[in-house]
């Protein structure tokens, strides 16, 4: 994974605000997207098949690659 990706992650306070909203809301909403990075990821998920999305995650996070000890 590219270390510079962390530069664009949401701040903990942003995530905490969404968690607080979810915990105190009286709505029936089951999903909350916390932070701009998560919003972009959610939009990507909505625009492709689940298989393609999993492939994107595998590529982005280096999953499925063998690691030599």
Q: How is the topology of this model organized?
A:
Blueprint (H helix, E strand, L loop, with lengths): L11 H13 L11 H11 L3 H12 L8
Distance between the termini: 18 Å
Largest sheet: none
Poorly predicted residue ranges: none
Radius of gyration: 15 Å
Mean pLDDT: 86
Number of strands: 0
Helix content: 40-55%
Structural class: mainly alpha
- The 3D shape can be described as extended
% residues in beta strands: under 5%
Q: Give the topology string: H per helix, E per strand.
A: HHH
Instruction: Give the number of helices.
Output: 3
Features:
about 70 residues; mainly alpha; 3 helices; about 50% helix
Q: What features would you describe in this structure?
A:
- With 69 residues, this protein is an all-alpha fold.
- It has 3 helices and no strands.
- The protein has helices at residues 12-24, 36-46, 50-61.
Give me a quick take on this structure.
By secondary structure, the chain is mainly α.
